[in-house]
Amino acid sequence: MATRKPQLKPLPKHLRPRYRYIVISIESWPTVKLDKRTFQQAIWTSTSRLFGDTGAATADLFLIRFEFSNGSGWGIIRTHRDTLSIARSSIACVSKINEFPVGIIVRGVSGTIKSCEDKYLSKLPEPVIPGEHLFNTKISPSFTRGHCIDIQTDTDFIGATHLDVT
C-alpha cells in the first residue's frame, strides 16, 4: 500500500511576506559588459557595507529581471515592504561595477511585477547609434543615445551633448 505525502497548505494571506518591486534604469559607457550575476553582487555588497550583514539579510534584495546592452539597461529588484528605504539607499550607493562607472536611477516602485512592467517599462530604451564626431580637433568614434553622446578617447569616454561637438 502506497503512502501519500501530506500536502502543505499555503500560508494565509495575512502571514505571507509583503514585497515591493523597484524598477531601475542603468547607464554606463557603451563598451561595458554587465550581466545579472555581477549586478546582483554589486547590490548585495553595497547593502552589506551600508547596513551590515543583518541589514542586508533583512532587506533581502533580489534581482528579479535584468537587461543590459550597449551601455544602458533596466532591472526589477524585489525587497520587503518594510525595508524599502534600505533598498533605495543601497541602490543609490552603487557607482562602480568592475571598475566601470555606472549610473542607476530608480524609475518607480510598485507592489507587483506586472504593474512595474505596465507603468515603468512600457517605453522602449533609446537605440545606440555608433558614428564619428569632431571633438578637440580630432575625429573620434562616438555612440549617440538620444541627446547624449559618448565620445571615445584613447583611454576612456567623454560624455557630451550635440552642442559640444560638431
Task: Briefly note the structural class of the backbone.
Answer: alpha+beta
Bin the helical content.
10-25%
Strand line-up of the largest beta sheet: 2-3-1-6
What spatial form do the alpha-carbon principal axes imply? elongated
Average per-residue pLDDT, rounded, comes to 88
Alpha carbon gyration radius: 21 Å
End-to-end separation: 83 Å
Summarize the main sheet. Answer: 4 strands, antiparallel
Walk me through what this model shows.
The protein has 166 residues and is an alpha+beta fold. The protein contains 3 helices and 10 strands; from the N terminus they run βαββαβββαββββ. It has helices at residues 36-59, 84-92, 113-120, and strands at 19-27, 62-69, 72-80, 96-97, 100-101, 103-110, 128-135, 138-145, 148-152, 157-161. It has a 4-stranded antiparallel sheet with strand order 2-3-1-6, with helices on both faces. A 4-stranded antiparallel sheet has the order 7-8-9-10, with no helix packed on it. A hairpin with a 4-residue loop joins strand 9 and strand 10 (157-161). The chain is elongated. The termini are far apart.
In short:
This protein has 166 residues and is α+β, with helices and mostly antiparallel strands. The protein has helices at residues 36-59, 84-92, 113-120; strands spanning 19-27, 62-69, 72-80, 96-97, 100-101, 103-110, 128-135, 138-145, 148-152, 157-161.
